[in-house]
């Protein structure tokens, strides 16, 4: 029986993690979890899974939970989040929190020897070198949950990393993959949230539409697989059937295929190094018929180009890029800026930033907080 902790349990990935625990209750048990303000969801999770500890964001919501007859500790806020992340019974922690707020809990879990099922891209985007070094020192596994990185992780099983020629990360193209830049000037929030393949949270869906999501994944892949950025490519693949590929020095290319369902990479992370069966839709290539690929246009997808630039420069520039993107996406979700304003604001702030090289954790957190506190106008 593997004991599971989940951060961001009320989000899309967190809920699918609960699905996996529910499907394999003979193998996995939820022992800890954290949600934001979703008290009703927290109550449902407590009632169904009977975990040991739960964290909610606001102390004022504690009295809204019905805990009669339940042996559970309820905590709140940032300190509570760390307590859940480092809970001693956790064998593996699914970190599916959105944003760089996921960094501290990841490091805290690593320090407590807990394996990480990582769905929080920003942890590695802003502090990848620090996180991976800490994991190596503690002997902790960082198991990728993003479908692209899980695919690469699976393709590399049993392979010698020195034989890697390049990683090829696939991208669906998001909600606006068939639109020109001129057509993007008038797109609506409703249009942006209509992803053709995946069911995800709002922030990730917008990131997919701008292609920043793929940019974050490129940076994440650099740290996860310890490769120079020159060996990480992206390609458009609108069906989202091939989740990513690895090319080796003998010209072989190994790919991982599957239906667009986040439950598969979550299950693989929970089960690793084993595999467990799923009673789910099987990939039928005859029904799919055709797989399409297209070269990535970095002029069309400016946010992806900005991400490549951020990691090539390094230092604090990826921190700035990520922080400004988080704020700009929220401004778009709130109807305060247009879709194309997102990339305009990010590029402007990156251009103006004076980079600190080799930043420590305190510097990273300070820069992140600074750029998230600013008021951005177009």
UniProtKB/TrEMBL annotation:
User: Which keywords appear in this protein's UniProt record, sorted alphabetically?
Assistant: Isomerase, Isoprene biosynthesis, Magnesium, Manganese, Metal-binding, NADP, Oxidoreductase
The encoding gene is: dxr
Q: Can you tell me which residues bind NADPH?
A: 11-13, 36-37, 120, 122, 201
> Which cofactors are required for activity?
Mg(2+); Mn(2+)
Pinpoint the 1-deoxy-D-xylulose 5-phosphate reductoisomerase C-terminal domain residues.
142-225
Q: Which residues bind Mn(2+)?
A: 146, 148, 217
Residue positions annotated to bind 1-deoxy-D-xylulose 5-phosphate are 121, 147-148, 172, 195, 208, 213-214, 217
Coiled-coil ranges (or none): none
Entry's Gene Ontology BP terms:
isopentenyl diphosphate biosynthetic process, methylerythritol 4-phosphate pathway involved in terpenoid biosynthetic process
Role according to the record: Catalyzes the NADPH-dependent rearrangement and reduction of 1-deoxy-D-xylulose-5-phosphate (DXP) to 2-C-methyl-D-erythritol 4-phosphate (MEP).
Sorted alphabetically, which Gene3D superfamilies does this protein's record hold?
A: 1.10.1740.10, NAD(P)-binding Rossmann-like Domain
Enzyme Commission no: 1.1.1.267
Stated name of the protein: 1-deoxy-D-xylulose 5-phosphate reductoisomerase
Enzymatic reactions: 2-C-methyl-D-erythritol 4-phosphate + NADP(+) = 1-deoxy-D-xylulose 5-phosphate + NADPH + H(+)
- Which family does the similarity line name? Belongs to the DXR family.
Single GO molecular function: NADPH binding
Domain DXP reductoisomerase C-terminal positions: 257-372
Q: Which PANTHER family match?
A: 1-DEOXY-D-XYLULOSE 5-PHOSPHATE REDUCTOISOMERASE, 1-DEOXY-D-XYLULOSE 5-PHOSPHATE REDUCTOISOMERASE, CHLOROPLASTIC
């Amino acid at each position: 029986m593997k004991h599971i902790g989940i951060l961001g349990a009320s989000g899309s990935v967190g809920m699918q993690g609960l699905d996996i625990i529910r499907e394999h209750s003979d193998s996995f048990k939820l022992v800890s979890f954290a949600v934001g303000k979703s008290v009703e969801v927290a109550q449902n999770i407590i009632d169904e899974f009977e975990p040991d500890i739960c964290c909610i964001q606001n102390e004022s919501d504690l009295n809204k939970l019905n805990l009669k007859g339940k042996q559970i500790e309820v905590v709140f806020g940032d300190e509570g989040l760390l307590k859940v992340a480092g809970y001693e019974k956790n064998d593996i922690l699914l970190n599916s929190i959105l944003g760089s707020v996921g960094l501290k809990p990841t490091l805290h879990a690593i320090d407590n020897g807990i394996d990480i099922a990582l769905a929080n891209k920003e942890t590695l985007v802003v502090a990848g070198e620090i996180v991976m070094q800490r994991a190596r020192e503690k002997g902790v596994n960082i198991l990728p949950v993003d479908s692209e990185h899980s695919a690469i992780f699976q393709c590399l099983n049993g392979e010698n990393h020195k034989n890697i020629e390049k990683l090829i990360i696939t991208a669906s193209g998001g909600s606006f993959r068939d639109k020109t830049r001129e057509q993007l000037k008038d797109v609506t929030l409703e249009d942006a949230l209509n992803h053709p393949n995946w069911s995800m949270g709002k922030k990730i869906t917008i990131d997919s539409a701008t292609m920043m999501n793929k940019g974050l994944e490129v940076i994440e892949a650099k740290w996860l697989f310890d490769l120079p950025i020159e060996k990480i490519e992206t390609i458009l693949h609108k069906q989202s059937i091939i989740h990513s590929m690895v090319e080796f020095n003998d010209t072989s290319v190994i790919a991982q295929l599957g239906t667009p369902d986040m439950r598969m990479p979550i299950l693989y992370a929970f089960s690793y190094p084993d595999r467990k069966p799923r009673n789910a839709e099987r990939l039928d290539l005859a029904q799919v018929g055709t797989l399409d690929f297209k070269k990535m246009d970095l002029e069309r997808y400016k946010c992806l180009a900005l991400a490549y630039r951020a990691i090539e420069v390094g230092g604090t520039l990826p921190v700035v890029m990520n922080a400004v993107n988080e704020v700009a996406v929220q401004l778009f979700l709130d109807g305060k800026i247009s879709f194309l304003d997102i990339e305009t604001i990010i590029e402007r702030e990156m251009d103006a930033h004076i980079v600190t090289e080799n930043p420590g954790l305190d510097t990273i957190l300070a820069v992140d907080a600074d750029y998230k506190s600013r008021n951005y106008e177009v």
